[in-house]
């Protein structure tokens, strides 16, 4: 039995459904410690993979967290501490 040839022109790039802790941190532009803190606060739910000693994070959950954050009122960008610009103080 032969496998059918893959038409590379019509192939769709697959996006992973789950990310490691480090990948989740990079996805959100945070540190891994911040990911741990989000889990402790219940804002992010790690997924335990049965039979493995690993946890992963659903890309859908990470995207939903960004949507939630974007819905919150933004910081006062005129406040020099917000952007870490001490020259404007």
What is this structure, in a nutshell?
The protein is mainly α and about 90 residues long.
Q: Can you walk me through this structure?
A:
The chain is mainly alpha-helical. The chain has a domain at 18-69. Helix content is 38%, strand content 9%. It is built from 4 helices and 3 strands. It has helices at residues 21-28, 32-40, 59-71, 80-83, and strands at residues 18-19, 47-48, 55-58. It has a 3-stranded antiparallel β-sheet with strand order 1-3-2. The longest helix has 13 residues, at 59-71. 8% of the residues are buried. The model has no long low-confidence stretch (mean pLDDT 86).
Describe how the helices and strands are arranged.
Elements: E1 18-19, H1 21-28, H2 32-40, E2 47-48, E3 55-58, H3 59-71, H4 80-83
Antiparallel strand pairs: 1-3, 2-3
Low-confidence stretches: none
End-to-end gap = 72 Å
Number of strands: 3
Order of strands in the sheet with the most strands?
Answer: 1-3-2
Mean pLDDT across every amino acid position:
86
Percent range for β-strand residues:
5-15%
Q: How helix-rich are the residues, as a percent range? A: 25-40%
How large is the count of helical segments? 4
Q: How does the helix and strand content classify structurally? A: mainly alpha
Major β-sheet profile: 3 strands, antiparallel
Please provide the ordered H/E string of secondary-structure elements: EHHEEHH
Q: What is the overall silhouette? A: extended
Radius of gyration: 19 Å
